[in-house]
Design brief:
Elements lengths: L1 E6 L11 E5 L2 E6 L3 E6 L7 E4 L4
Antiparallel strand pairs: 1-4, 2-3, 2-5
């Protein structure tokens, strides 16, 4: 199964900072402003985390 994550920040503070996308605590990609990423996941259960400063 695949999911698509899209970031549309607009004119907000830190729009230039990339967001880290993690699946089960492993970084699988980064998102810049106005970008998308497709991620393959393996059900039945995964943990999705999005962080701005590495957390």
């Amino acid at each position: 199964m695949a999911i698509k994550i899209t970031r549309r920040t607009g004119w907000l503070f830190n729009m230039g900072a990339k967001l880290n996308i993690k699946i089960n605590e492993e970084v699988v990609g980064k998102l810049s402003d106005n970008s998308s990423i497709n991620i393959d996941i393996s059900p039945p259960e995964v943990q999705l985390q999005v962080s701005q400063f590495g957390g």
